[in-house]
Specification:
240 residues; alpha/beta; Elongation Factor Tu (Ef-tu), domain 3; Rossmann fold; 2 domains; six-stranded antiparallel β-sheet; 21% helix; globular; binds flavin-adenine dinucleotide
Length: 240
């Protein structure tokens, strides 16, 4: 893939311990919603055994002006440097990679099962699909401990209101630790929860994306519900 240098435009906290970084999109850079990028720090002030590169999904939709990545700000050398980067600083982008992208056949519904920061490619795919007015039926199940932890929650919820083909199902697993109101689902994503919104679980193509433990649990749930392996696509955020 071509290698680009991209300039940081701005950064902001978008959920508890979670930041989004906006970069200038280089001329001639094209990607599909859901794809990812290898991001490398240039001459960072510090480094560690994991090195200066991390893979991040592009959380921005291709129609958006900026390239956006979002991450949980753990205390690693890479993220300490990223957090303190000033606007105008450049990093290297090796991209785009990956096939975690929406299928073409619009008669088959797309169901996204995601949690935590695994939401990044889902946000990109959903916003692009709505922007392009695609005919697919799209359902997103998004699990978090609390609304405070849920990055892009508003973007994904808002789109639900104006798009009859799109259903958003948020679920929280630790509302007792939250100070916000929540009127959505609670508890882990389960077969019973899916059946409230999907009549025949064997019809859709499923996109599971998040930490490896979540991907394993969701794949098991779907297999036990009789979903064909061919209809399950996964993206594991290794490193969590
Ligand atoms: C295709 C793909 C897309 C991805 N997209 C994203 C994305 O959009 N956003 C995103 O945030 N990540 C994404 N990731 C994961 C990302 O590449 C990093 O692995 C992740 O952010 C962890 O980086 P780190 O610097 O926090 O930890 P690293 O320094 O990479 O350390 C990883 C290892 O150390 C352990 N570790 C480090 N710090 C801690 C800690 N505080 N607590 C517990 N364990 C710790 C981890 O368990 C792991 O074993 C993606 C990964 C892939 C493969």
């Amino acid at each position: 893939m071509p290698i680009y240098k991209v300039k940081l435009k701005c950064k902001q906290e978008i959920a508890a311990g979670t930041m989004a970084f906006h970069f200038e999109k280089p001329a001639g850079f094209f990607y599909k919603a859901g794809q990812s990028a290898d991001c490398t720090l240039i001459n960072p002030a510090e480094t560690d055994a994991e090195g200066n590169t991390r893979v991040f999904s592009l959380a921005s939709a291709p129609y958006e002006a900026d390239l956006i990545v979002a991450t949980r700000m753990r205390d690693t050398a890479f993220k300490r440097v990223l957090k303190t980067m000033e606007p105008g600083t450049e990093l290297t982008l090796d991209a785009p990679y990956g096939s975690f992208t929406l299928h073409n056949n619009a008669s088959v519904p797309a169901v996204f099962l995601t949690g935590g920061i695994g939401v990044t490619p889902v946000k990109s795919i959903v916003l692009q699909a709505i922007h392009d007015n695609v005919p697919h039926r799209i359902l997103v199940f998004y699990s978090n401990s609390r609304p405070e932890d849920a990055a892009f929650l508003d973007d994904l919820m808002k789109s639900h209101v104006t798009n009859p083909n799109y259903t958003f199902v948020g679920t929280m697993t630790q509302m007792e630790k939250s100070s916000r109101e929540w009127h959505g689902e609670s508890g882990l994503i389960s077969k019973a929860m899916l059946l409230k919104y999907i009549v025949d679980l064997t019809l859709p193509i499923y996109y599971i994306d998040g930490p490896p433990a979540m991907v394993t649990a969701m794949r098991k749930l779907l297999s036990e519900a009789g979903v064909d392996d061919d209809n399950i696509r996964t993206e594991e955020f290794s490193g969590y």
